[in-house]
TrEMBL record:
Residues that span the membrane, as ranges: none
Signal sequence range: none
Protein name per the record: Isopentenyl phosphate kinase
Organism (species): Methanothrix harundinacea
Function of the protein: Catalyzes the formation of isopentenyl diphosphate (IPP), the building block of all isoprenoids.
PANTHER family: GLUTAMATE 5-KINASE (PTHR43654), ISOPENTENYL PHOSPHATE KINASE (PTHR43654:SF1)
Enzyme Commission no: 2.7.4.26
Length: 252
């Protein structure tokens, strides 16, 4: 079986989060080129940025079901997914889009069930699944948002990856102006108040939401990296097994 690597690229890296559906095409092309050389065993997840958050907020999808909002939000993130998939294909990779709306059920905003058997098969056959933050059916409220971060941790729990990494628009977890080399559960009370929301419109919690997801994963014995995917070369290094940014560590 191929060793699995799970990489998420945040929506702030791929889009301008303040302007509706504005993809940063140069960044997408560069990221695709970096990934293409290191895509064995890779499952890629990307955020929504200004392709999903703005629709989700306009339709108040986190608070209540909007049937129109489900369609519009999903279609929007699929448009970004298409751009990422096509860039990967041009770069020489073999991407295949996977839409969480079609294989995931939420309860109270958390994944209750998700079909994941296909991912091991895809990577074994040389395909690179490309998932994205999405809207999904929620048993308790009709529909909800499943963030790319939540998808990453859910996949990591079921697929035992060798690498779990989240590429963001910052160098890692920043406290007192410095990038922390590592963060453990016990550090959260001290650093928590400094963790800001994401720039632009964000319905899934910014850096704090990200860290909470990853600390839950660390509690289960899986460590992960938060690194800067806007810096050229970083994705290649991280996929090559290097440590960069902040390591979210399991308890000693
Ligand atoms: C959000 O996904 C999904 C929607 C709003 C539809 P993410 O939370 O993973 O997106 P980013 O990385 O913050 O943009």
């Amino acid at each position: 079986m191929t060793e699995i690597k799970i990489l998420k690229i945040g929506g702030s890296v791929l889009t301008d989060k303040t302007v509706l559906e504005s993809a940063k095409m140069e960044a997408i092309e560069r990221i695709a080129a970096e990934i293409a050389g290191h895509d064995s065993g890779l499952i890629l997840v990307h955020g929504a940025g200004s392709f999903g958050h703005i629709h989700a907020k306009n339709y108040s999808l986190v608070e209540r079901l909007s049937r129109e909002g489900v369609l519009e939000t999903h279609r929007s993130v699929v448009r970004l997914n298409d751009l990422v998939v096509e860039a990967l294909r041009r770069a020489g990779s073999s991407p295949v889009p996977v839409h969480p709306l079609s294989c995931t059920i939420l309860r109270d905003g958390r994944i209750e069930a998700m079909q994941t058997d296909q991912f091991g098969e895809m990577v074994d056959w040389g395909l690179v699944p490309v998932l994205h933050g999405d809207v999904a059916v929620d048993r308790s409220r009709g529909a909800g948002i499943v963030s790319g971060d939540q998808l990453v941790t859910h996949l990591a729990r079921s697929l035992e990856p060798e690498i779990v990494a989240l590429g963001t628009a910052v160098d890692g977890v920043i406290f007192n102006g410095k990038v922390l080399a590592e963060v453990k559960r016990e550090d959260l009370p001290e650093i928590g108040s400094e963790l800001g929301p994401s720039a632009g419109v964000d319905v899934t919690g910014g850096m704090r939401g990200k860290l909470e997801e990853l600390l839950d994963l660390a509690d289960e014995g899986i460590s992960s990296l938060i690194f800067n995917a806007e810096k050229a070369g970083m994705i290649e290094r991280v996929l090559g097994g290097e440590r960069a940014g902040t390591l979210v560590e399991v308890k000693a």
